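Narrative of activities, Objective 1.

The group set out to show that a structural description can be obtained from nothing but a protein's sequence at a throughput compatible with the screening campaign. Below is one input-output pair from the validation batch, recorded exactly as produced.
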Amino acid sequence: MEQVKNLFLRNSPAAQDRVVLGRVSGSMWRKEELTEGQLNHHVHVVGASGYGKTVLLSHIIKQRIQQGKGLLFIDLKSDMETLLKFSKHVAEANRIDDLMIFSLTEKQMSLSYNLIEDGTATQLRDRIINSLNWSEEYYKNQSSSFILKLMILLCWLRDNKQERFHLGTVLDCASNPVKIIEVGNKIPMTETKLKIYAQNLKEFLDAKEHFNSLQGLRTQLESIVLSDFGELVTSEVLGINLFEAYTKSKIIFLFLDSRRYGETAKALGRFILQDLKSVSARVDGEVPKEQRKSFSVIIDEFADLAQEDFIGFLDRARSSRMSVVVAHQEICDLQRISPEFAGRLMGNTSTLYSFLQKRPESAEIISGMAGTRTVWKQTRQTERLGFFEMDSGGGSRREVEEFCIHPNTIKSLRVGKCVCIKKYPEARAYLVNVFEGK
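Output recorded for this entry:
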């Protein structure tokens, strides 16, 4: 009866939104699937390089494209083969018009992406500050104060005079008091408060000590604005807009080559995640619940981009129907953010796929997540008669707890095989043979 029920569910309209990833180990007929609800409760994928993590992600990407869903894929490897493969999936689904590409290495294929196009002054200040690295709180606070006042001026010009700005504008204004004067001159005399802010900013830059306190801000912005790909994030041409991509179910591939551009690519990735957070908040505030569309966000090499405030975003993303899939190599990679981050991430994602984990502590964490089961353990007594061990007839039978998935299993998984742990809608743990990539 249960098999009949499952067959009915697979042919129901809701089944069209399922993502099929492989076959459950030990079963002849049971496929491993992710439902829309499970995707919306977020997915965490870990695994050593070359063991099937990227293949699993490609199954999700291909099927979400075929289903007509909006999708954002962020990859730090910027592999041309991957770009062409995923673009082929888009073409096969007849959705080329929905495709938007941003690549640091393939600029001729890329659209521009203004990282601070949308948002209020406070939101944009937070986006910039949270995307950069700060060694001391003093310099962070000085930069934060400067950027907030500057954003108030620039946002007013954007909203009232349709004047666009970007990170290059921020760098120019933080480097030269003359640029502040130019911005202030565009604001009418009737806006007294804004005029005062412009004067305050100029006086701030005129003071040598205050000007020097912004050196960290200028240096980090220069690494983006003056880079090989700087024109992509400072262009006046309309390009990628995440909110529009969400509302129109666009397909966005963002390829950030961290091997070539290192920390600059990671900083750019953090800007994008901050932009994504603001889009989720805007969806909640502006789009009626019944009009919100399913939108998948897939982040490979997540450990290099993760920040503490990402956990809060996962909870809010659910209400805006953003399904988040994060992937990286080892659970322990997340400890560089904070000792608690890995636990908080696993607590906010309801499905975990783990391929081979080489570090024992990672395997033990995952095994602990899978839980234990109650079994009966039989013991028997023996006695030695000459050279032989003979059963004496005595023994015991007791109830014990054992791992559902032993750590040694996780440390010895072959290529293409993974542990699946689901907590929604019910707790389960089992092994999966992932389908080969095509």
